[in-house]
Every structure is written in C-alpha cells, then in structure tokens.
Amino acid sequence: MFCRLSLQRIAPTLVIMFICWCSLHRLVFAQLLPHSITQAQETLLRQLSGNALPPLADLEAYSLRYHPALRIARSDVAQAQQDIVTAGLRPNPVIAVQKDIFPWIGEAFAPAQKQYGFQLNVPFELGGKRDYRIALAEQATQAVRLQVANSARLLLLAVRLAYFDVLSAQEYSAIADTTVSIYRTLVDLNALRLNQQQIAANEYTRSRIALDQALLQQRETQLALRKARIALLSTLGISADSSLARSPQNTSVPRQRLEPIVRTIPSLDSLRNQTLRNRHDLLLARAVQRTAGANQELQEANASIDITVGLDAYIQQGVFIYGLTTQIPLPFFSRNQGEREKSRLRADQAEQSFEYVRRSLLNEIEAAAAEYEVRAQTLRNFSAQAGIANRDDILARALSMRTVAELSYKSGSISLLELLDALRTHQDILRSYIDALTQYNKSIVQLDAVSASDTIIIE
C-alpha cells in the first residue's frame, strides 16, 4: 500500500521531468545540427528575397538532400531493404503438446493411465526457395534505388530550368526598369520644352503615353519575376507563403547576371553511349527485367514440394512411445501453374518495356542534341549580326545606340518618333539576346539531364 501511494504521488513529477528532458534534448539536438532543414530553408529564403540568387550548386545540393519527394522516396529504399531481411527468414518449427484432462472414472481410465505427449514439426523448404526469394528482394531493392535516382535526375533538371527562368525574369525586369527611367527623363525634358514652347503639346502627350506603356510593362515583368521565384521555391519543395519569399528586401546586393554556360559538348555518338550507359530510367527498366526473371525463377521453385519432419513422443497407458513423422504433399492438383505463367508473361512484358525505353531514349537524345545545335547557332548568329564577341560588348553597343538617339533628340536632330523607335529597337535587341541566352542555357541542362551526366548516389 505504501509503495502504491508513493508511486501515485511522484508520477506527475516524473511525467513533468520526462517532458522537460525531451524538450531539452530536442533543443540541444537542433543546436548540434546547424544545417537542419529549417535553417537551410530560411537561408535560401533570405537569399531569394534579395536581388542575388544562391549559387545553382547550393540549390541542387539542397534539393537532393531536403526535397520532400526524395525524402519520401528514400524511405522506400529502406523498406525495400527490409524485404531482403524478410526474404531470408526460414519457416518456424511448430510444437504441439497433448494431455488428457477429463477425470475419467473406472479402472480402465484411472488418472494414472492418462496420456501425455508432444510433437515437434520442422518444415524444410526445397527447391532453393529461400535463395530465390532473397535474389528477388535484392533485385527489387536495386530497382527502387534506380527509381529514386531517376526522380533525382528529373528534380535537378526542374531546379536548373526554374533557376534560369528566375535569372531571365530578372534581366527582363532590369530592362523594364531602365526603360521606365529613360521615359521619365524624356517626359521631364518634354515638359520643360513645352513650357518654353519649343515643342507641341501632342509631342509631350506621346512621351507620356510611352511612359505609361513602360510602367505597364514594368509591372508585368515584376509579376513574372515574382512568379518565377515562387516556381523555383515550389521546385525546391519550399512553401512560398513566407514573407521573405513574397517581395525583394535586400536590394543592396548586386543582381546576378545571366551568363552563358561554358561547356564542351561531346559528339552525338558519345552522348548516345553515355545515355545508354547512365540513364537511370533505362537502368531501371533493366532492373525490372532482372526482377521479373528472378520472380520467374522463384515461381518455378515454388512449384516444388516442401516436406515437414516431426518428432513424436507420448506416454500412453504408462508406456513411453516415440517416433518420427514425415509429411510429404502430393502435387496432383496445385503446382503453382497460375503464378508460373504470370511470371513468364511479366518477364516478356519487362523485356518489351526495356526495348521501348531504349528506343525512346535514343530519340530523346537526338531531339536534345538537335535543340542544342539550334540554340547555339542562334546565339552565335546573334553575336555575329551584332558584330561583337561577348555580352558586355553587346550591351555596350546597344547602350551606345540608345545614347546617340537620346543626344540627337535633345539637339533636335531627330523626331520623337525616331527616338521612340530607337528605344524600342534597343529593348528588342536586349530581349532577343536574353531569350536566346536563356534558351541556350536550358538546352545545355536539358542535354545534361537526357544524357545523365550527373552522378547521383542514393543512400
């Protein structure tokens, strides 16, 4: 009684102490993991909230480590590994105990004449079923690993495409901001000229209309940039409802510029061989084919019989009796016919799927290589038409053309319509180059994804 009352009194205290210990343990554990998923998300959000984007390598590393889809897929690998353990288990022996319990009355059924005994049955699997089960589970585990690796390949492609979309949207937004600044200066100049009666009111009105159009275009580019950032967050598996992700805050950080990817592209034959050698979905199709073959071998083995050996021991009417019992099924009716035929059909299906995936990948690498050639040629033609070698020269020449038009308009050498046409031409050149550069970079990352140039290890 004393022990029971004491336990009732101290139980609430023990519960409170346990809760405090758990909270302290969680706090200490969080401090010991500075690269936890929450802190990593906060770091990326703060970087995305300013003008500068995190390096693409950091975004890729984050997505491979913390993306919810991959975290869930990795648990599938862990579950598949446990299937190997299950496949290696042997059947349990069975023991049966017998004893008379009814109080029979009479000389023939005296209590001393009751029966006691036990039986130990040990099943034995024949035909190598256990080995075939383990082989099937191992092949299935490898297939799950390759499926996760293929998902990671597609995730890296999505992150890279979203990253270049953000850079492109930033470039378009910067062009729109510059255009608004130019038109504001033009409106102020024409307002001064109108007061001095140097221009007509119609010319001032045209400049105001051009400014209004530029403001509308600026808002559109800002919206496109915000949507591109949200799309990048979604690709990374991060919620976009944080206030850090809604609007830029740290505008003092220099804006990251869109630069062409410098890469030596292998020949088409090398890309074909690399694709057939490294593509995870093709390796997955091969693993599924091997899994189907392992399942077919297992189903054939399941057609063989299993025997059970039993050891019997009884005390019957005071006499100790022991013996050996063997149970051998007679496979007259059930020989696993349905599963054997189904496994054969699945093996044929897996082989056809492998060939289909192989042909599809060859077509995919052809299309990706063709797109890269077109995008690269477009970028080269753009540079050749501009008569310059790199992007800085392109921007310098476009800026020079715009500056000359502005100075000519101020001196009265050209009209407002000629100035507006020069400004629009300058904007079209910049947008065309940004579009060509973005498509060129995307074609390279698409080619990398198709040829599986990234080495992805799934733990």
How many H/I helical runs? 11
Contiguous runs where pLDDT drops below 50 for at least 5 residues: 1-12, 14-35, 243-250, 385-389
Number of strands: 4
Distance between the termini: 55 Å
Task: Estimate percent helicity.
Answer: 55-70%
Seen as an oligomer or otherwise, the chain set is single chain
Q: In which order are the strands of the major sheet placed?
A: 1-2-3-4
**Integer count of domains:** 1
Structure description:
The structure is a single chain. The protein is an alpha+beta fold. The chain has a single domain (42-451), classed as Outer membrane efflux proteins (OEP), CATH 1.20.1600.10. 69% of the residues lie in helices and 7% in strands. It is built from 11 helices and 4 strands, in the order H-H-H-H-E-E-H-H-H-H-E-E-H-H-H. The chain has a 4-stranded antiparallel β-sheet, with no helix packed on it. Residues 1-12, 14-35, 243-250 and 385-389 have low confidence and may be disordered.
